[in-house]
Design a protein that fits this description.
Blueprint lengths: L4 E19 L5 E20 L4 E5 L10 H13 L5 E6 L10 H17 L6 H10 L12 E4 L4 E5 L6 E6 L7 H11 L7 H9 L2 H6 L2 E2 L2 H7 L2 H11 L3 E6 L6 E5 L2 H15 L2 E6 L4
Parallel strand pairs: 1-8, 3-4
Antiparallel strand pairs: 1-2, 2-4, 2-5, 5-6, 7-10, 7-11, 9-10
Helix pairs in contact: 1-2, 1-3, 4-7
Length: 288
């Protein structure tokens, strides 16, 4: 058994997010989600201990017992028939309430680390079942790669070749709504989603211009309703000559821009911070 395991996990953006009005037996919306991993990362470390403990750096405002990492550890231990005697530490850089999947990324990384500690395969159906039980995006982070997830956004339908494209991530100064709030707003006034076929075809070929022309997020209107500044960020990004296309990711409040080069991403991120006072990161898709 390993003495300690550290897993670096990317965040994600939704190139296509199609939320349907239909819900499953759990009350979750049917979701078509085309995600790609992004190289803005957290690190999750796990090691054997005398009981279960979870800590975050910087600390969270919610009790650790309510986090996806805690739930992932307890549910996986139950599924594998082992005692959750482990210390888990999360070093976080992925911003919260951003639509970047930070909490899901941490939970997925915790599952991967615990699988190594406890001698399990992350592809084991029991592990995948735990991931789906913790949260809709967690299964994506068991093996983060460009992929289409269906069901409630938690069932892998198809994976795609690695996509290598520079990105800029920009968050407004005002706080966005929570994911439950965004879905509640969608239930009130949301539109039907577009098909995901053209985005999947673009990802299969790896043509970035085609990917850029087929971005879609029908949860975006709900995100903008809860945080109107998101629309300002999106419009500003689309007005930058170095940005091929831009949209808000997930339920917000972070928007991303596909950029022409790594230098262009750095320049746009710098302008977003200096000219508008927005939080920004120059990064790229994750291809490890």
């Amino acid at each position: 058994m390993a003495c300690s395991v550290a897993v670096e996990t990317p965040c994600k953006i939704n190139l296509h997010l199609g939320v349907h009005h239909q819900k499953d037996a759990r009350g979750y919306h049917r979701v078509d989600s085309v995600m790609v991993p992004v190289a803005l990362t957290d690190v999750v470390e796990a090691r054997p201990a005398s009981g279960l403990s979870v800590s975050f750096e910087p600390p969270l405002e919610v009790p650790v017992e309510k986090t996806g990492v805690w739930r992932a550890a307890t549910l996986l231990a139950e599924a594998l028939g082992v005692s959750p005697d482990v210390e888990i530490r999360v070093r976080a850089r992925i911003p919260e309430r951003a639509g970047l999947g930070g909490s899901s990324a941490d939970a997925g990384a915790a599952l991967r680390a615990l699988c190594e500690l406890w001698g399990a395969d992350p592809c084991d159906p029991r592990v995948v079942g735990v991931a789906r039980g913790v949260g809709a995006d967690v299964a994506f982070f068991l093996h983060p790669e460009p992929a289409l997830f269906l069901g409630a956004g938690d069932v892998l339908e198809r994976a795609f070749p690695p996509l290598d494209v520079p990105l800029v991530l920009v968050m407004p100064g005002s706080m966005g709504g929570s994911t439950p709030e965004a879905y509640a707003e969608f239930d009130r006034a949301g539109s039907d989603p577009a098909p995901y076929d053209e985005m999947c075809a673009a990802l299969q070929t790896g043509v970035v211009s085609a990917v850029a022309s087929h971005l879609h997020n029908n949860l975006g209107d709900a995100a903008r309703s809860l945080c109107p500044e998101i629309a300002d960020v999106e419009a500003w990004l689309r007005a930058q000559s170095e940005v091929l296309a831009a949209q808000v990711t997930g339920s917000g409040s972070c928007s991303f821009g596909l950029c022409q080069s790594a230098e262009a991403a750095r320049e746009v991120a710098t302008r977003a911070a200096s000219e508008r006072g927005w939080r920004s990161w120059a990064t790229k898709t994750w291809t490890d």
